[in-house]
Amino acid sequence: MLHRPKLLLANFPSVDRNGHAGHWQGYLSAIQQFDTLAGETWRRIQADPVLAGKTTLIITNDHGRRYDDWTEHGDDSEGSRHIMLVAVGPGIQPGSVSSDPHSLADLAVSAGHIIGLEPPRGGGRLIAPLVGGMAPRQDVVVNGPLALSAAGR
Q1: What is the pLDDT of residue 6?
Q2: What are the φ and ψ backbone dihedral angles of 150, each rounded to 5 degrees?
Q3: SS3 state of residue 9
């Protein structure tokens, strides 16, 4: 890998765009494309001797979708209030499932914990299956800007 950022945020908006536009085939195609990219990302991480065994990959979406109208979200419907989250990496027990309610703020605090960042005041709480009993990484020092990438824009 050319770059090894301390934190990488990637956005793949094609799933959301196709969903809002009501393009079912485009929506399914975008999901399949993202699934392929996610798998390839994990394979490359594991092939890199610097990152393998030391990197956590977290995949989530920023909102759910209504069950009765998959093109909409943002209200208090059951589907809109739930997001999916998949994580793999050191300290994460394969097959772990949490039925406890969490928020995106909890995800931010948990991701920060993994790389050794102090949580902001008023933030969320740790997601136990995501951080397990792992101590914050002591070998990660964030003293400069974090790498942010918006793929697919």
Answers
A1: 65
A2: -115, 95
A3: strand
Q: Which of 120, 101, 100 is nearest to 109 (CA)?
A: 120
What sign does the CA torsion over 122, 54, 87, 42 have? positive
Q: What angle, rounded to 10 degrees, do the helices at 24-47 and 14-21 form? A: 170
pLDDT on residue 94: 81
Residue 138 DSSP label: S
The whole model's pTM is what?
0.75
Distance CA 102, CA 124 (A): 8
Residues sharing a CB contact under 8 Å with residue 37, sequence separation 6 or more, in sequence order = 12
Dihedral of the alpha carbons of 68, 73, 79, 84, in degrees to the nearest 10: 130
> Using one digit for the tens of pLDDT, what is the confidence trace for 8-55?
777 788 988 898 899 999 999 999 999 999 999 999 989 999 888 888
pLDDT in tens, 48-75: 998 888 888 888 887 778 788 878 777 7
Residues 6+ apart with CB under 8 A from 143: none
For 59, the enclosing helix (H) or strand (E) is strand 57-60
